[in-house]
TrEMBL record:
InterPro entries: 6-PGluconate_DH-like_C_sf, NAD(P)-bd_dom_sf, P5C_Rdtase_cat_N, P5CR-like_CS, P5CR_dimer, Pyrroline-COOH_reductase
Cellular component terms (Gene Ontology): cytoplasm
Residues annotated as domain Pyrroline-5-carboxylate reductase dimerisation: 169-273
Lineage, top ranks: Eukaryota, Viridiplantae, Streptophyta, Embryophyta, Tracheophyta
GO BP term, example: L-proline biosynthetic process
Stated name of the protein: Pyrroline-5-carboxylate reductase
GO molecular function, one term: pyrroline-5-carboxylate reductase activity
Residues binding NADPH, per UniProt: N65
Amino acids binding NADP(+): I16, G17, A18, G19, K20, M21
Biological source species: Phaseolus coccineus
Length: 274
């Protein structure tokens, strides 16, 4: 049976699970003009706060997950990983080959998703929490029956909350260790930089503001300048100056090796859990 294309200009989007990630994606999609809220739906079940959150920007909140699937061309599964199997299995009667299924559940493999749903038209996406401020780093992998057009739709949806790349699923544990867990490493770095500023005599508020803006600015320099981070580091490191003195301390503390170990450890844990 031939799979019908998703109507790119008129398709409807449904969320199974009405948590913070689903809300971030829905808000980004509306804010960027990818879809109007009238073409988005979810089911918040018994949680009035989640219902209010979605209705506040015009999304329809239906009475059941089954209704959401029936009324949607593209269905995003945004439930906790341990609940995915149960939730998807209950939805199989309303999942048809013409629906594009998207999972953002961490650690849940495409082969399992496809088996539980009885459909191979799946795309797995790994976003991260900066989706809440429109700066997510997301990666997608296409399932057996997902088309290039399906991939384009998902790229546009997740492009509304940050940047998205395509990669083979075998890389997803490493992606989890880097971009999935990575924001937490950077929060630690920002907190440590701010503490360093306080130790150097700066007021706490000023120090924290400078630390967060410095990290944001440095990341923007890497993504926008096209220069290797090593070159950018060299550009601010003058002979016998302040920056090289600081870098020397970081090297003494094993800064680079520690960050590398953190990514590898988180990737290993992701493999163990999945």
């Amino acid at each position: 049976m031939e799979i019908a294309s998703i109507p790119a200009d008129t398709y409807t989007l449904g969320f199974i699970g009405a948590g913070k990630m689903a809300e971030s994606i829905a808000r980004g999609v509306v804010r960027s003009g990818v879809l109007p809220p009238s073409r988005i739906r979810t089911a918040a079940h018994s949680n009035p706060a989640r219902r209010d959150a979605f209705e506040s920007f015009g999304v329809s909140v239906l009475s059941s997950n089954e209704d959401v699937v029936r009324e949607s061309h593209v269905v995003v599964l945004s439930v906790k990983p341990q609940l995915v199997k149960d939730v998807v299995s209950k939805l199989t009667p309303v999942i048809t080959k013409n629906k594009l299924l998207v999972s953002v559940a961490a650690g849940v493999k495409l082969k399992d998703l496809q088996e539980w749903a009885g459909s191979d038209r799946f795309i797995r996406v790994m976003p991260n929490t900066p989706a809440a401020v429109g700066e997510a780093a997301s990666v997608m992998s296409l399932g057996a029956a997902a088309t290039e057009e399906d991939g384009s739709i998902v790229a546009k949806l997740f492009g509304s909350i940050g940047k998205i790349w395509k990669a083979e699923e075998k890389y997803f544990d490493g992606i989890t260790g880097l971009s999935g867990s990575g924001p937490a490493y950077i929060y630690l770095a920002i907190e440590a930089l701010a503490d360093g500023g306080v130790a150097a005599g700066l007021p706490r508020d000023l120090s924290l503001s400078l630390a967060s803006q410095t990290v944001l600015g440095a990341a923007s320099m890497v993504s926008q300048s096209g220069k290797h981070p090593g070159q950018l580091k060299d550009d601010v490191t003058s002979p016998g100056g302040t920056t090289i003195a600081g870098i020397h301390e970081l090297e003494n503390g094993g800064f680079r090796g520690t960050l590398m170990n953190a990514v590898v450890a988180a990737a290993k844990r992701s493999r163990d859990l999945s």
